[in-house]
Amino acid sequence: MAHITYVEANGQSTTIDLADGWSLMQGATTNGIDGIIGECGGSCACATCHCYVDDMLAGVLPPPSQGELDMLENVVAERRPNSRLACQIKASPALEGGVVTLPECQE
Known about the structure:
This protein is an alpha+beta fold.
């Protein structure tokens, strides 16, 4: 389990306990966090779970797959070097204390 903090576009911060193996997208949608839609349900096919990971997460996450990189080409909000798709990031103890910032829009 990892404590993950989501920062919504309006600045509201919410920290949740995310079970190992759950995606950051699942954590956000299950806990009513605004800013992640996840239209495709986590199959890396819509880019509506675009997020920005903090430096700590960027340092421990594996690099994005080619499929994730392809989908990041379709994000509506500004794509940044720390842009990721929340559906592709699975919780583990290594993510403890990570912060995910959500963009102003997904569609």
